Amino acid sequence: MKKWREHTYSFILLVVVLVLWEAIAFNIKMTFILPSPTDILMKLWELKKVLLLEHLPATLCIILIGLGISIILGVGLAISMNSSKIIEKAFYPLIIFSQMIPTIALAPIFILWFGYSIWSKVLVTVLITFFPITINTYDGLRAGSNDLKELLLTMGAKKKDVFLLVNVPSAMPHFFSGLKVAVTLSVIGAAIGEWLGAQAGLGYFSRRMMTQFDGAGVFAPIIVLSAMGIMLFLLVKWVENKTLMWRKSE
């Protein structure tokens, strides 16, 4: 009950925004530019089978593959940078620089290389999502207590033991923080890739509806994308709570 009370103000704000949106759309009466929330819901109901059975699986596949690659790449790179100063000095500036390039500018290049296959969209997703995972995990590995490390070494522990007993527990909360950011960005990355070139997917369907001047049709897959992003975020949050139960005890 307490949790529901915490979200009361957010719910009220959402209702106010939807009511204002409905009123403005009703007065404008130009649904191809600004469809009302009721128009969008009706279109969503009309297209539910196409969106959920055909285009949602295509987008979800891109997101899961992209996130999987980002986790492996990000965690591996973070561990390597933490264990070697040379690797840190070589890769850290490049990781930062990779985020300075607009993703929207690289997406057409990926499509040029890989065509309209799934891998052009996966690369866009990886480019967006690996950064928060890498940086957060790296910061978490460095946040381990030096006093505890020295204590373990004086007691005869090996570097591997220090890594598993100190670095990994200190990095886990940071890793999940980065993953929660990455999971929301992955939806954006997949949609951008599909928007620029695809044969299926929610981003592709939204773009197709735009060419037909169907405003409600443009918004309908966006609603599904948002819902999917929220569900993935809640899933990561649930895994975090189950994995880091020791934080609650503290």
From TrEMBL:
The chain crosses the membrane at residues 12-35, 55-79, 91-116, 122-141, 185-205, 217-239. It is found in: Cell membrane. One of its GO terms (cellular component) is plasma membrane. Coiled coil: none annotated. The keyword Nuclease does not apply. One of its GO terms (biological process) is transmembrane transport. Keywords: Cell membrane, Membrane, Transmembrane, Transmembrane helix, Transport. PANTHER family: ABC TRANSPORTER PERMEASE PROTEIN HI_0355-RELATED, ALKANE SULFONATE ABC TRANSPORTER-RELATED, MEMBRANE SUBUNIT. This is ABC transporter permease.
